[in-house]
């Protein structure tokens, strides 16, 4: 039994917990040792102690009453450093992904993943290896980019800052229009406004400006 990965499931839906527990208990590599209906309950269970010992991994829902997954992750890790937490959720909002990762979660996995992908994520978390699908990784990138543009006080609108960062990444007007779901004409308007506000003459100068300001990863 000692070689099994011990898992705690935290989700406010009874049927979800039951389904996850049933599936994981069918896998010889896992043992579900505890459950909780929200983050606050999870912290309380851990504080009281579990007969089988502390879990190796907590499979944590994100959107829960009383204390959500991001809050619970931060609280658990403050009391039990080194605990591995995997966020399992239906939500892929950019800011939520950033919150979950910043709180200390090892991985962020959508509930739409296959059983094999979930097992892979749990095994990866056990080894301390972050696992994120392409969609989640993209959401994290977008969320961090949004945090970057919101932190600037240059007088640009948030959309203009997004356009500027994409210009700095070498994206064409067509690429920017597709990524931001706006028309090419709108992109051109944003570029013109950026040139005026930054007092620059062309896209190359805009890209250099963004790098010099430290708004682009790796600059």
TrEMBL record:
All copies of domain Response regulatory, residue ranges: 6-126
Listed GO MF terms: DNA binding
Transmembrane segments: none
UniProt xrefs under InterPro entries: CheY-like_superfamily, NreC/VraR/RcsB-like_REC, Sig_transdc_resp-reg_C-effctor, Sig_transdc_resp-reg_receiver, Tscrpt_reg_LuxR_C, WalR-like
Top-level taxon in the UniProt lineage: Bacteria
Modification 4-aspartylphosphate, positions: 61
Pfam families: GerE, Response_reg
Assigned keywords, A-Z: DNA-binding, Phosphoprotein, Transcription, Transcription regulation
Occurrences of domain HTH luxR-type (ranges): 149-214
PROSITE patterns on file: HTH_LUXR_1 (PS00622), HTH_LUXR_2 (PS50043), RESPONSE_REGULATORY (PS50110)
CDD domains membership: LuxR_C_like, REC_NarL-like
Protein name: DNA-binding response regulator
Provenance organism: Paenibacillus vini
